TrEMBL record:
Extent of the signal sequence: none
Cited PANTHER family: GLUTATHIONE S-TRANSFERASE OMEGA-LIKE 1-RELATED (PTHR32419:SF6), GLUTATHIONYL-HYDROQUINONE REDUCTASE (PTHR32419)
Keyword vocabulary terms for this entry: Transferase
Annotated organism of origin: Actinophytocola algeriensis
Binding residue positions for glutathione: W83, R115, F116, T117, V118
Name this protein carries in UniProt: Putative glutathione S-transferase
Length: 310
């Protein structure tokens, strides 16, 4: 069992501190890491609520890896044992044969006492978690699984743009992807305000950058856009209210709102978004900040409105 509840991990100053990824093995084309990229060998476990898992889901779809890497979707509501496979028949993942994701974690490390997190990639044969290293998972799907990509799959991490992508995604992670959690789980006023200021300063910078270019890096969709999208798409539904990220709603930031709609309307994005799972997960599971577990009905947002970006 995890010893620390999610959202309760704070520094002395009340800043939210995210746990380190416990399983960081890589799945590589040649298998020199000990885990070779092979169709049918691995199962990607996601929650449709989770922004980190959402990245992997989008990338898997854009690259056409659905037949190579199977998918398990957990119930958006965790119980005290963590993520459950209650959306499946008999409450059990049909491929891994387990009821809780924690079983795969404990099969890999019986002493593990951290949080059992998604996304995770599980080796179907051994039933063990290979990786929950979410930043690496998507990059490896792009670079190590090439042999199994669909014809014409986009290169989401092209070599000549890597340095720029890396530069852009670092502050996006710190201030936006993890920044919203640093707002929501801050344990002091000071830590909350610092995170809030950094979040909106970064969103202002990104708005300025995206005013005259369709995508974050180069003139094409890359890993950077996927990483920003998964936070933006949750912004008004959960982060604005639940995490107190409320200087503006996404729909009040015109450039980012059009950019997010553009991505949402791109094949491979909108169909992966499940607002019901997103809202139920956050409002129901983070008991410390929403003890009534009431899930708000709104907002009502039209993601299909023309975006006007070209
Ligand atoms: N692996 C990372 C990021 C992934 C992550 O935070 N996933 C969340 C859902 S968005 C999760 O699985 N939480 C499970 C828990 O806290 O028990 C971490 O440990 O911080």
């Amino acid at each position: 069992m995890a010893t620390v509840q999610f959202g309760k991990e704070t520094s002395g100053r009340g800043e939210f501190v995210r746990q380190k990824n416990r399983f960081t093995d890589r799945i590589t084309a040649g298998g020199s890491s000990g885990h070779k990229a092979e169709p049918g060998r691995y199962r990607l476990v996601v929650s449709l609520a989770c922004p980190w898992a959402h990245r992997a889901l989008i990338v898997r779809g854009l690259l056409g890896l659905e037949d190579a890497i199977s998918l398990a979707v957990v119930d958006p509501v965790r119980d005290e044992r963590g993520w459950r496979f209650t959306l499946d028949e008999n409450d059990r993942d049909p491929v891994l044969g387990i009821e809780y994701l924690s079983e795969a974690y404990l099969a890999s490390d019986p002493e593990f006492d951290g949080r059992f997190t998604v996304p995770s990639i599980v080796d179907v044969e051994s039933g063990q978690v290979v990786t929950n290293d979410y930043p690496r998972i998507t990059l490896d799907l792009s670079t190590e699984w090439r042999e199994f990509h669909k014809p014409g799959a986009p290169d989401l991490y092209p070599e000549h743009l890597r340095a720029e992508i890396d530069d852009v995604i670092e502050p996006i992670f710190r201030n936006v992807n993890n920044g919203v959690y640093r707002c929501g789980f801050a344990g002091s006023q000071e830590a909350y305000e610092e995170a809030y200021d950094a979040l909106f300063a970064e969103l202002d910078r990104l708005s300025a950058r995206l005013e005259n270019q369709r995508y974050l890096v180069g003139d094409r969709l890359t890993e950077a856009d996927i990483r920003l999208f998964t936070t933006l798409v949750r912004f008004d539904a959960v982060y604005h209210g639940h995490f107190k990220c409320n200087r503006d709603k996404l729909t009040e930031m015109p450039v980012l709102w059009a950019y997010a709609r553009d991505l949402y309307q791109t094949p491979g994005f909108g169909e992966t978004v499940d607002f019901d799972h997103i809202k139920r997960h956050y409002y129901y599971t983070h008991e410390a900040i929403n003890p009534t577990r009431i899930v708000p009905k709104g907002p009502v947002t039209d993601w299909t409105e023309p975006h006007g970006r070209g």
